[in-house]
Design brief:
InterPro entries: UCP030820. This is DUF934 domain-containing protein. With 147 residues, the chain is α/β, with parallel strands linked by helices. Helices cover 29% and strands 14% of the residues. The chain has a 5-stranded mixed sheet, with helices on one face.
Length: 147
C-alpha cells in the first residue's frame, strides 16, 4: 500500500492511522459522527472503480459538516479518478497496485496546477467569467417564416 498526496503527487512516507472508515452506504448520522470530534483521517471506501458515491460523501463532509482534516480514498481506484478525488475534497489516495504509483504521481502533479479545492464561486476564483445564458428562439432563424 502506498499513500499519494493528491495535490502534489508526492508519496506520504509516514501516514497517520485512519480514525474512521466510511462505506459508500453511510448515512447522514455516520457522516456527522465521523466529522465531529475525529482524531485522525477519515477513509472513504470505494468497493469498485465504477462506484462514485465516495465522491459525494467527501463533498458532504467538507461542505455540510465543515470537516477540515484529511479525507483518504481507499479501495479500487484508478489514476483517472485523481482529479475528481481532489475536486470533491479528498487529500490522499491509498494505492494498492505498486506499478500504478508512478502514473498516480504524474497525474496528480499535472492536475495540481489546474485543479484546487472547490469553492463557493468557482468562476470568480478561477478568473473566468460566469457562463452567459443562451437565448432560445421559438422559430428557426435559418428559414424565413411564411404567413
Amino acid at each position: 500500500m502506498v499513500l499519494v498526496e493528491l495535490a502534489t503527487g508526492t508519496i506520504v512516507a509516514d501516514p497517520d492511522e485512519v480514525a474512521t472508515v466510511l462505506e459508500p452506504t453511510a448515512d447522514e448520522a455516520a457522516l456527522h459522527d465521523a466529522a465531529g470530534g475525529n482524531a485522525g483521517p477519515i477513509a472513504i471506501a470505494f468497493p469498485s472503480f465504477t462506484d462514485g458515491r465516495g465522491f459525494s460523501l467527501a463533498r458532504l463532509l467538507r461542505e455540510r459538516h465543515g470537516f477540515k482534516g484529511e479525507i483518504r480514498a481507499v479501495g479500487h481506484l484508478i489514476p483517472d479518478h485523481g482529479q475528481f478525488l481532489l475536486r470533491s475534497g479528498f487529500d490522499t489516495a491509498e494505492i494498492t497496485d505498486p506499478e500504478a504509483v508512478q502514473v498516480w504521481k504524474l497525474r496528480s502533479s499535472a492536475s495540481a496546477t489546474i485543479i484546487s479545492r472547490p469553492c463557493a464561486i468557482p468562476c470568480r476564483c478561477a478568473g473566468m467569467r460566469p457562463p452567459r445564458p443562451r437565448l432560445r428562439s421559438t422559430r428557426c432563424l435559418a428559414r424565413p417564416t411564411t404567413s
